[in-house]
Amino acid sequence: MMNKAGGPIQLKLWGPARLEYQGRELKLQRKGLAILYYLALEGATRREVLADLLWGHSAASQNLRVELHRLSQALAPLGYTLFKAGEDPLQLPPFVSLDRTPSPGAPMEGLEELSVEFRAWLEGQRSQLMANSSGTVGRERLVQEVASQLTLPSVLILMGRPGSGRTAFAQALAKALGVPFLEGPRGGGKALHYLRPPYTDVSMERILTDRDGLWVVERSSYGEDPKLILELRSHYPAERTRYITLPPLSWAEARASMLANLPFAQAARLFLASGGSPGHLRELLAVPHTGAEVPLPQRVRAQVQLEARMLSLEARLALERLSVHPGPYSQGLLDALEATPYLDELERRGWLVYAGQWQFSDDASRRVLYLGLQPGRRQQYHRQAALQCAMEEQRMAEAYHRLMAGDTADWGTFVNTLPGWTRYGLKAWLGMNEALPMGPSVGEMARGSELALLEEARFGQGFEVDGRHVRWVRTPSQATTSGIMWAGQDEASLLHLKGHVYVENPLGVGISGRAAPLMLEIQEPREARVIFLHGIQAGALADNALLLPVKEELDVWFRVPAGASIRLTSSAESGLIDLEVTSYRIAPAAQAQSAPKVEVLEFFRSAVEAARKH
């Protein structure tokens, strides 16, 4: 069944923070709003995390209960129940949606002064949203936004992963402010002082007494706050302190710069391997390589291992064991890989995050740790994971881990136990192609003038819309589907998908067995869907279910029945998809002779059969 994402109650992402019901603002406490925004952007969250984020003292849990009660009271008159009694982790209900429509101002304005921890989170979100929004590309826009809001003297805590380009960002910021960039505390007057760990050459007194400078303190996304930052939190005025987590490069940003001269598939492969880290990308580009295997540059490996050495030995070894499994972890898998006792340390130091299930905060770092494992250990850990997946009856995940461990498997028997499109997808990946029951229904039609597509909703992580272009950057941490819905047209129309697709799904269909690289669905009210899979032969599973090969260069047309809403999604576990989506009228008979002809696929085979009979 197709579900419309979005509901009658909307959180407005850009401009002043507010919740609207049917276009009217609902009056809420700011901390109540903060809870809703956090759940909307981070997903399911434990109560304990929210309490620490917004209050951080002994009565935090009680304060959170009071705030949740206030939220419930605000929505009860409208007939909505926000959270179930005792619900933990808390999750935003489907009737509350996040409206990402760009508007003037910064995201979530007015929530800056709730707590130091929430402000740090807010600054990180703003950095990412500003960097990925349209307009001046990425980091350039972020530099401009930060420069316009700073008043000297100030302190800027600049967080990022290894290779995230913190120094380059600070240098660009100094240029935008028109002040010199100075390493360390030397010099005075209007200047940007850049401080690197372990900060031994600077005293707190020097920063507190400076009346003209900007002090940029580099901090890793991994580990805990060092002494200098703890002292700044305690003694430096909060209103003159900013926290920025430097986001990775967006795909558009990387493609326009570092990856501009590469073919799409190679550029996508390197981008996914690097997680958008400029330093990691630079190292990958410097290492010659061919084929699908992406090498692990020594400098990148050393940087990640250096960060991991800050963990206790037991936690570091647990992290290495977890690296064999891309994607979220069940509690059983955490136990099997002997990681459960170290979850608190790994979360506190930024390596793991909890979003309904535990997962790596950064898949590129997981890849680096995995590639750094000795082959014997890698094999051992995959076998531990396979055994647990077998106990949980996660057959696809078990098959993946057995394959990666180098164990033999009876694929022929296994694939025939799988349902529907999953079976055809895995068979295609294994080179055991099976013909579909029916061929696709194809016809020729005359293309008329362009029709506007009216967006109804967009949903999920790693997805963006830019005019006619839709883009997905899918990583294993994104366990949910992402994509877009468009409203139906009043008349039958043509839909054109054109662009590039690069997908790295394990086993072709993912460890879940449900990771369709691309899916196109319509509802009018009959439902039909098209699933794109690697290596598949085009054909139909049923009257309303089409399987098509997903090619690196996609160029395909469909006839959409009148009134049919359209849903385009990806559930890929790792991939990059960049498509232009256009809708056209079907040319009327009088113009059909002169109009361009296109080969069109039908959603319903029966529609073609009926047309032939007439």
Walkthrough of the structure:
The structure is a single chain. The protein is α/β, with parallel strands linked by helices and 614 residues long. The protein contains 22 helices and 25 strands. The strands form five sheets. The chain has a seven-stranded mixed sheet, with helices on one face. Strands 6-7-8-5-9 form a five-stranded parallel sheet, with helices on both faces. α5 packs across α6 and α17 packs antiparallel against α18. The longest helix is centred in the first third of the chain and has 17 residues, at 116-132. The chain is globular. Residues 1-6 and 608-614 have low confidence and may be disordered.
Determine the number of helices (DSSP H or I, runs of at least 4 residues): 22
What about the largest sheet?
7 strands, mixed
Low-confidence runs of at least 5 consecutive residues: 1-6, 608-614
What structural class is derived from the secondary structure elements? Answer: alpha/beta
How many strands appear in the DSSP assignment?
25
From the spread of the alpha carbons, the general shape counts as globular
Quick summary of this structure?
By secondary structure, this protein is of the alpha/beta class.
Key terms:
alpha/beta, disordered N terminus, disordered C terminus, globular, 22 helices, 35% helix, 614 residues, single chain, 7-stranded mixed sheet
Outline the secondary-structure elements.
Elements: E1 9-12, E2 18-21, E3 24-26, H1 30-42, H2 47-54, H3 60-75, E4 96-99, H4 116-132, H5 138-149, E5 154-160, H6 166-177, E6 181-183, E7 192-195, H7 204-209, E8 214-220, H8 227-235, E9 241-245, H9 251-256, H10 264-274, H11 278-286, H12 298-308, H13 313-322, H14 331-336, H15 343-348, E10 352-354, E11 358-360, H16 363-371, H17 375-391, H18 395-404, H19 411-415, H20 420-430, E12 442-451, E13 455-459, E14 463-466, E15 469-474, E16 482-486, E17 493-503, E18 518-523, E19 527-533, E20 539-542, E21 545-549, E22 553-560, E23 565-570, E24 575-586, H21 589-592, E25 597-602, H22 605-613
Parallel strand pairs: 1-4, 5-8, 5-9, 6-7, 7-8, 19-21, 22-25
Antiparallel strand pairs: 1-2, 2-3, 10-11, 12-24, 12-25, 13-16, 14-15, 15-24, 16-23, 17-22, 17-24, 18-19, 18-23, 20-21
Helix pairs in contact: 2-3, 4-5, 5-6, 10-11, 17-18
